[in-house]
Write a structure and sequence with these properties.
about 0% strand; mainly alpha; about 65% helix; single chain; about 120 residues
């Protein structure tokens, strides 16, 4: 995730940001393998909901903690990939099509701050 944030200062294409950030991680790392899975599925036209479900099914089994960097990092990469460079559009992926855990995590936020995300 830090790589994506840093690359955001010099790159404008979300897909390029995700790809370059993944290459910063050692190829044998499960985190890199998970990011590669997101990229590969997105590049062949899989829908974000399908990718999220497959990431959850594959990586949450191996890394079941709710704060697993592997699965969570992949979901962030997914949101960046499909967010079209728009912060609110990217944020929507954390509220709607991913998991109930992410929606639950957003519950403490003031409802008025979430309204623009629903539009």
């Amino acid at each position: 995730m830090a790589g994506m944030v840093s690359l955001g200062f010099v790159e404008t294409n979300p897909q390029t940001i995700v790809k370059k950030a993944a290459r910063l991680i050692h190829p044998d790392s499960p985190y890199r393998q998970c990011l590669n899975q997101v990229i590969a599925m997105a590049e062949v036209g899989r829908r974000p909901e399908q990718i999220a479900a497959e990431i959850e099914d594959r990586w949450r089994i191996e890394y079941p903690a709710s704060n697993s960097a592997v699965a969570n990092g992949a979901l962030v990469a997914l949101a960046v990939w499909f967010g079209q460079g728009n912060f609110l559009r990217t944020s929507i992926w954390f509220i709607d099509p991913l998991t109930s855990r992410t929606r639950t995590a957003m519950r403490p936020m003031p409802q008025q701050s979430l309204l623009p995300l629903a539009e």
